[in-house]
Design goal:
Layout lengths: L15 H19 L11 E6 L5 H12 L3 E5 L12 H11 L2 E5 L3 H11 L3 E3 L7 H15 L6 E5 L5 H12 L3 E5 L8 H14 L2 E5 L2 H5 L4 E4 L11 H9 L6 H4 L7 E4 L10 H10 L15 H4 L6 H20 L4
Helix pairs in contact: 1-5, 1-13, 2-13, 3-4, 5-6, 5-13, 6-7
The structure holds phosphoric acid mono(formamide)ester (CP) and norvaline (NVA).
Phosphoric acid mono(formamide)ester binds next to helix 2.
């Protein structure tokens, strides 16, 4: 498999065997890391990390991952660079492409990450846009493979905002890998018909199925994986909260919902998750909405503390897998030996 020079902007651009290859490469890098085997295959190469939005996992996964591979890293945060203020994305791309071997971008517009890839001449990795979050899906699928041994045929239920970057990307990933994807959400939050049509075409070639369910109890029935994400994504206006809570409260992942799934089911979340009063958002939600929505008074939003802290929850393994999968993406795109 040769992915040298290839950007990762959305999984739509990847074949199922390429996705499987990256997951298996990540598994190998993870085993090497655990055994203390160094893999500084990219010594002398440089990567720049452009972040317009906050991050814990993605930034750290790129920083530690690229350092493990022997690279030098530059972080450019939401302030401090000229991009988007005094300089266009197109010009920034051409400048960075002269200095770096690879670029990571987290921001708002998918068109920006596409422009970076088009004009920089080096591989560009999408570390999250409003539309897609492809590196997260690779970590999620490595985690599923570790838990079940396979991906094809997995029954996957995604709860919450199914038209955000996670809903879109998980639907694409499931379609590519022959999994059974179910979006469990009110109809207004299902993915766009255009993306559903695209994914259905892919599904016809892989054996995947896509279904859409409004009933939160029925949605979990016979699932291997119950997955959810925050109800309001980065970059959405504050005013969305009240509407989203009203729409999604019945879709909160509780023990009752988990009990509808198979006994062997796992709970997943890309994180960050709101399940306690230990965050500003949790506290604010408790103050503003706790009276009308009882569990919000404890800061529990999209998932209860009981579920995320249960034995079925794999969220921290999943978070750790961000680094191994991101390393695989960088390595595969910068060498032809792997
Ligand atoms: N899951 C994820 O992308 O987390 P961060 O926002 O912390 O990077
Ligand atoms: N949908 C979330 C994902 C965070 C990793 C967001 O965009 O904020």
């Amino acid at each position: 498999m040769n992915l040298k020079g290839k950007s990762l902007l959305t999984l739509l651009d990847y074949k199922p065997e390429e996705i499987q290859y990256l997951i298996n490469l990540a598994k190998r890098l993870k085993e090497e890391k655990i055994q203390g085997i160094h893999h500084r295959y990219l010594e002398g190469k440089n990567i720049v990390l452009l972040f317009q939005k906050d991050s814990t996992r993605t930034r750290c996964a790129f920083e530690v991952g690229s350092t493990d591979l022997g690279m030098q890293t530059t972080y450019l945060g939401p302030t401090g660079s000229q991009m988007g203020k005094k300089e266009s994305v197109k010009d920034t791309a051409r400048v960075l492409g002269k200095m770096y071997d690879a670029i990571e971008f987290r921001g708002y517009r998918q068109s920006d990450v596409e422009a970076l890839a088009k004009y920089s001449g080096v591989p560009v990795y999408n570390g999250l846009t409003d539309e897609f979050h492809p590196t997260q899906i690779l970590a999620d699928f490595l985690t599923i493979q570790e838990n079940f041994g396979y991906l094809k045929g997995i029954k996957f239920a995604y709860y919450g905002d199914a038209r955000n970057n996670m809903g879109n990307s998980l639907m694409i990933g499931c379609a590519k890998m022959g999994m059974h994807f179910k979006a469990v959400a009110p109809k207004e939050l299902w993915p766009t018909q255009e993306l559903i049509d695209t994914c259905n075409l892919i599904a016809q070639t892989t054996g995947a199925t896509l279904t859409f369910e409004e009933d939160p109890m029925k949605g979990a029935k016979d699932s291997d994986v119950i997955y959810t994400d925050v109800w309001v994504s980065m970059g959405e206006p504050k005013e969305v909260w009240a509407k989203r809570i009203a729409e999604l409260y019945p879709y909160q992942i509780t023990k009752k919902i988990m009990n509808q799934a198979y006994k062997t089911a796992i709970f997943m979340h890309c994180l960050p998750a709101f399940h306690s009063l230990d965050t500003e958002v949790g506290k604010q939600a408790a103050l503003d909405f706790g009276k009308d929505y009882p569990s919000l008074a404890n800061g529990e939003l999209e998932v209860t503390d009981e579920v995320i802290e249960s034995n079925q929850s794999v969220v921290f393994e999943e978070a750790g897998n961000r680094m191994h999968t991101i390393k695989a993406v960088i390595l595969a795109s910068l060498t032809d030996d792997f």
